[in-house]
Amino acid sequence: xxxxxxxxxxxxxxxxxFGYVGIFVLxxxxxxxxxxxxxxxxPFAGFLVHSGKFNMYxxxxxxxxxSLAGALISYHIGKFLGREFIIKYGIYVLISERHxxxxxxxxxxxxxxxxxxxxxxxxxxxxxxxxxxxxxxxxLKFSAYTFVGSFGWCxxxxxxxxxxxxxxxxxxxxTEILDFFIIPAIIIFVVWFWMKFKNKKINRKIxxxxxIINSKKI
Length: 218
Prior knowledge:
This protein has 218 residues and is an all-alpha fold. It has one domain (4-175). Helix content is 77%, strand content 0%. Helix 1 (4-31) crosses helix 3 (56-89) and helix 3 packs across helix 8 (139-164). The chain is globular. The model has no long low-confidence stretch (mean pLDDT 77).
């Protein structure tokens, strides 16, 4: 906890002094690969929701917008400056080449939908925007997936902080367990949604073909 404690103290001070703006800035930093973990930001905001100082949905929205802003910065760095620049200078914000390579493989293997899933996965969520930018992924699609995934993650952490109240800090000790349960749940939901969408598409094609056949018979 040696390195984490001052970061948590920093996050608490920023939120206490700047409110929603502080949450936005901290989540922006978190999404640009700087060492500001969302688990040190959103649960404390959830505690302040419990205390009546913040609103649950506004906190989640502001956190998601901050994540989107930071992700867009990383995306454009990847797009315009390239992989070599990130590897050369990423070390100054604790981006290791090993983690970047792992994230690139993750992005290449699972495609653009990983932008949504990555918001729930440690390390990957901090770095996924770089390979998306390098690959010149469609910006509108990137922004939509990023915002929806970030909102879900921010809401989960905020709600947990709300439930834990003054004990919100213990979430740092159980982050890996949290990720272990959330990631499979999100993957199951995405697969279910995709299958449902695919079946609707197939049914539409069948119906349209039947209409054409019936019209020809008439």
